[in-house]
């Protein structure tokens, strides 16, 4: 519907005929001007984003396996086409180097950038050793070439894409945890403690990291999509024979009744084989480290035949080979020692690196990121410059530990008006504030060492799915995946207890503030403990009480946050209730209950999505 209303002439990426027509017309378009490619590239990125959103946002019962495969194939074809167009634009620029010749060095230099891409190109026209080093002043990217390259007819391209179209598709389209799970009817049922667990998609998504081994590879090293549902659907078939409680226990990958579930032997065997195969420490574990800040395509290219002016004619030799890479080190001298290439890259300002980034290179043959082949790394955090050496020219990414902001040190969810709330998550490195209003949310601030950072991405209203993608892309990951407990020391909680707690917290979030309690660590796996205070005005003083909830029973505790030991003793003159709503209703004001009962179900759903996405009760 939104696509229909926009009426901007762009194709509907979910309609195969429209997207195929769009790609065919652009392939046939011979205009290789770099500015036009960048403009068209922005449209392509929007189409990819729409397809990824559909894959992430659509409930599993509303999308067929055929549609999933179709959307994944379309994403990969759009990514490949965009890279081909940048290669064509590079070749076009290298044929007319005289138009961008530098008056001081006699060599060609071009820097073109927009919000998605920074394109740096240098052509060695004079072939003089004294010009073997170059720094692109506009971007502070630079290189130092070996002597053999400095006297050759070569060009160096640094294509920095702020998106990642290189990593496996499962990493780009992670849907764990599944956010869009409740409709208004189900929410009403949850509030009455009749909770059915609807998050089957998480089981599917949990299998996604295994799928790269099943993908087919194009001749250019890129992947084609094989349905990511194949493994998950087979797992679902197996799980149908298990008890209902076991299926529910798998939702959040944490134990129910204190017992870890035993995986199906066939699937376990596949996992063991995979673990045995990946023994090389230089292969990056993409569940632990993720690319942040985009991808740097660094290439050394052969200069194509140049345009010659003969009277009023411009003549150029036409070849069918396209853009050619220059072999370095030379293939005929593999045993000889060749000096490395030194690179300097300026890191993006709209990305946070909380620790020194890990540099990895893409291995097209193995379809994986690797850390070998790169040496002498120097990182200047203040200047945001990183310098390193590599034996040949690679596609480079800067990686960061996906879980360095976990576990959280504290969290708080407080109302901020009618159908408005503020979620604050405090980590070792940063304090993140997310504002919620109606059916949308907004990154309000990211504070690091008492300084506001990432201002380009704050203050924009988006969906919870969009916010999750934006924050992860910026290097601020507070969204655990299904496998995150393998890398983080977590406070394990029974999944049904955790999910029901989030549902009921969201139900009353319009009038009550919830916050972290140290006693949650002491309460055991079957129970969660948090602080609660009625709050009708944003600036009112909080009167904290401790509540304990196990999914079926809520109670107010007698202890306080400053008590010496944990106790499950009930507060005087209080009693058990089956839901948190009824528990709070005992002591709440009429105004607070009225706000809870008039809250929008869309607001409640967004609060629930964010709580489920951050999993504050387990990861703090």
From TrEMBL:
Residue ranges annotated for the IC97/Casc1 N-terminal domain, each copy included? 1-130
UniProt feature, compositional bias: Polar residues:
226-236
Tell me which family the UniProt entry assigns to this protein.
Belongs to the DNAI7 family.
A cellular component term, taken from the record's GO annotations: axoneme
Q: Where is the composition biased (Basic and acidic residues)?
A: 203-223
Domain CASC1 C-terminal positions: 368-535
A GO molecular function term, named singly, is: microtubule binding
Ranges for the region named Disordered are 184-250
Which InterPro entries does this one have? CASC1_C, IC97/Casc1_N, IC97/Dnai7-like
Could you name the domain of life of the organism this protein comes from?
A: Eukaryota
- Listed Pfam families: Casc1_C (PF12366), Casc1_N (PF15927)
What name goes with this protein? Dynein axonemal intermediate chain 7
């Amino acid at each position: 519907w939104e696509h229909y209303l926009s009426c901007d002439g762009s194709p509907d990426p979910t309609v195969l005929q429209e997207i195929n027509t769009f790609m065919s017309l652009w392939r046939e378009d011979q205009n290789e001007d770099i500015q036009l490619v960048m403009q068209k590239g922005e449209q392509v990125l929007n189409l990819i984003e729409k397809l990824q959103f559909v894959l992430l946002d659509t409930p599993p019962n509303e999308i067929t396996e055929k549609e999933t495969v179709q959307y994944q194939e379309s994403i990969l074809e759009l990514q490949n086409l965009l890279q081909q167009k940048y290669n064509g634009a590079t070749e076009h620029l290298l044929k007319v180097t005289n138009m961008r010749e530098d008056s001081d060095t006699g060599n060609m230099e071009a820097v073109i950038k927009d919000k998605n891409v920074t394109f740096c190109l240098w052509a060695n026209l004079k072939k003089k050793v004294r010009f073997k080093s170059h720094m692109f002043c506009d971007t502070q990217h630079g290189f130092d070439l070996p002597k053999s390259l400095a006297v050759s007819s070569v060009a160096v391209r640094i294509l920095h894409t702020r998106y990642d179209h290189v990593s496996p598709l499962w990493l780009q389209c992670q849907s764990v945890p599944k956010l869009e799970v409740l409709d208004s009817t189900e929410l009403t049922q949850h509030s009455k403690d009749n909770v059915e667990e609807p998050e089957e998609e998480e089981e599917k998504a949990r299998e996604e990291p295994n799928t790269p081994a099943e993908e087919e590879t194009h001749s250019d090293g890129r992947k084609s999509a094989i349905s990511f549902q194949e493994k998950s659907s087979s797992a679902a078939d197996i799980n149908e024979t298990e008890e209902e409680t076991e299926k529910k226990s798998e939702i959040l990958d944490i134990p129910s009744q204190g017992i870890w579930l035993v995986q199906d032997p066939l699937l376990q065997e596949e996992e063991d084989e995979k673990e045995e195969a990946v023994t090389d420490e230089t292969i990056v574990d993409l569940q632990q480290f993720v690319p942040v800040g985009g991808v740097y395509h660094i290439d050394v290219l052969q200069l194509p035949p140049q345009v010659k002016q003969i009277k009023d004619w411009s003549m150029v030799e036409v070849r069918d080979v396209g853009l050619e890479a220059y072999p370095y080190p030379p293939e005929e001298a593999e045993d000889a020692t060749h000096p490395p290439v030194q690179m300097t890259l300026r890191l993006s300002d709209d990305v946070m690196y909380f620790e020194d980034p890990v540099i990895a290179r893409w291995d097209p043959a193995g379809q994986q990121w690797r850390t070998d082949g790169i040496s002498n790394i120097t990182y200047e955090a203040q200047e945001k410059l990183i310098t390193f050496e590599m034996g040949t020219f690679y596609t480079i990414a800067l990686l960061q530990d996906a879980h360095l902001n976990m576990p959280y040190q504290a969290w708080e969810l407080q109302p901020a008006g009618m159908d408005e709330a503020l979620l604050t998550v405090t980590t070792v490195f940063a304090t993140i504030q997310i504002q919620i209003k109606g059916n949308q949310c907004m990154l309000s601030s990211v504070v690091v060492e008492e300084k506001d950072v990432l201002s380009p991405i704050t203050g924009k209203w988006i969906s919870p799915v969009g916010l999750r993608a934006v924050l992860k892309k910026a290097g601020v990951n507070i969204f655990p995946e299904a496998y995150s407990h393998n890398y983080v020391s977590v406070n394990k909680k029974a999944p049904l207890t955790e999910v029901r707690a989030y549902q009921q917290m969201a139900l009353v979030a319009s009038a009550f503030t919830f916050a972290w309690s140290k006693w949650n660590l002491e309460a055991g796996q079957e129970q969660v403990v948090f602080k609660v205070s009625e709050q009708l005005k944003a600036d009112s003083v909080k009167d904290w009480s401790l509540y304990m909830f196990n999914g079926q029973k809520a109670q107010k505790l007698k202890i306080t946050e400053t008590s010496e030991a944990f106790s499950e003793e009930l507060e005087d003159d209080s009693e058990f209730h089956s839901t948190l709503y009824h528990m709070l209703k005992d002591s709440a004001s009429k105004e607070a209950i009225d706000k809870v009962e008039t809250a929008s179900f869309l607001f409640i759903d967004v609060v629930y999505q964010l709580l489920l996405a951050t999993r504050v009760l387990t990861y703090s």
